[in-house]
Amino acid sequence: MKNLLTVKDLSLNEINKIFSLAAELKEKQKKGISHKILEGKTLGMIFAKSSTRTRVSFEAGIYQLGGQGIFLSSNDIQLGRGESISDTAKVLSRYIDGIMIRTFEQSDVEGLAQYGSIPIINGLTDLYHPCQALTDLFTVKEKKGELKGLKMSYIGDGNNMANSLLIACAKVGMDISIATPEDYKLNDKVIEAARIIAQNSGSQIQVLIDPLEAIKGSDVVCTDVWASMGDEDEAEERKNAFVNYQVNNEAMALANDDAIFMHCLPAHRGEEVTTGVIDGDQSVIFDQAENRLHVQKAIMAILIK
After folding, report:
1. For residue 180, which of 198, 203, 153 has the smallest C-alpha distance?
2. pLDDT averaged over every residue in the chain
3. Residue spans of alpha helices (H) in the chain
4. Which residue, 81, 111, 73, is CA-closest to 93?
C-alpha cells in the first residue's frame, strides 16, 4: 500500500489493517493518549473542489498525529494555471511527505502517483471517494460487529459514492444493492470490476432501478445528494428524475428492523432523505462523519512513514 487511489487497489488485509489502526487511534483520542506518530511530517492538501469534512478531518488529523497540513487551493499552486501534473508531483515530492487531493478527474490523482515519489491519497474525484467508502464500512463494523454477510443498499445517483461503496462492499464480502434512475446508472467498468472482486469474496451484487426492491432486507441504507458538486446546473432536472428515490419512513420499513441509515453529508433534507429518517433513531450520520477523522488518520499513519 503505497497510495490510496481507489479501494479497488487495496487487499482485504490492507482494509482490515486500516480499520484496526483507526479503532486504536480513535480509542487513544477518546482517552486523551498522545499519538504523534507522524511528528515532523507534512501533508499537502490540494483542493480543486471545496469541502467541509475533507479539509477539517485531514487537517485536524495530521495535526493530531504530530504533523502539519498545508492547504493548497487551485489559486495557490501552478497546477491551476497549466503546470503539468508530472512537474507538480516531482516538485512537491521534494518539499512534503504526502499529498491528499480532492479534484475532478481521477487521472489527476493517478498522475500524481505515477510521477511523484511520495504517498498520494484520493480525497475525492468524480469517479471515486475511497476515504468515505472506507469510513462507511468502518462505521458499519462498529455498529454491527462484522461486515461479511450483511446487506447494504444505496439509493440515488450512480456517482463516486455509489462506485466506491460497490467496490468496497465487494472487497469485504458484504452484499450490496444499488438502485439508480435509468439515466443515472453507475459506471459500467466499475460494475464489471466489482463483479470480478465479488466472485472471490462471496459478495452478492445487485444493480437495480427499483429503490424499494433494493432496500428490502438491508442492514444498512445509504444515500447521497441528487446533484453532486459540479452538477448544480442540473438540480431541477435531477429532482424530477429522482422523485421516487427518497429514503423515507416507508422505504426504511422495508429494511431490517435494526437497520442503520447512513449519508456522507452534506444532506438536503426533504430531497434524498426525509428529516424523520436522517434525524431519527436509526441514523448514524454523525458517528459516520466523525469516523472520517479516525480512518483518514489511519491511512496517513500507514502511508506516511
Report:
1. 153
2. 96
3. 12-30, 53-64, 85-95, 106-115, 130-144, 160-172, 188-201, 211-215, 235-241, 249-252, 275-278, 285-303
4. 111
Model confidence over 102-123: pLDDT tens digits?
999 999 999 999 999 999 999 9
pTM value is 0.96
Place of cell 488485509: 13
Work out the pLDDT band at 232, boundaries 50, 70, 90: confident
How many C-beta neighbours within 10 Å does residue 271 have? Answer: 19
**In sequence order, what are the residues at sequence separation of 6 or more whose Cβ sits closer than 8 angstroms to the Cβ of residue 243?**
none
For residues 45 and 55, give the distance between their C-alpha atoms in angstroms, rounded to a whole number: 8
**Choices 3.40.630.30, 1.10.150.120, 3.40.50.1370, 1.10.3110.10: CATH for 131-288:** 3.40.50.1370
Domain 7-128+292-303 part of CATH 3.40.50.1370: yes
Question: How is residue 263 written as a grid cell?
Answer: 449519508
Could you state, in order of their start, the residue ranges of all structural domains in the chain? 7-128+292-303, 131-288
Catalytically active residues, by annotation: 102, 129, 132, 224, 264, 292
The Cα 245–Cα 252 span in angstroms is 12
DSSP string, 23-56: HHHHHHHHTT----TTTT-EEEEEESS--SHHHH
| Residue 190 cell numbers, joined | 466499475
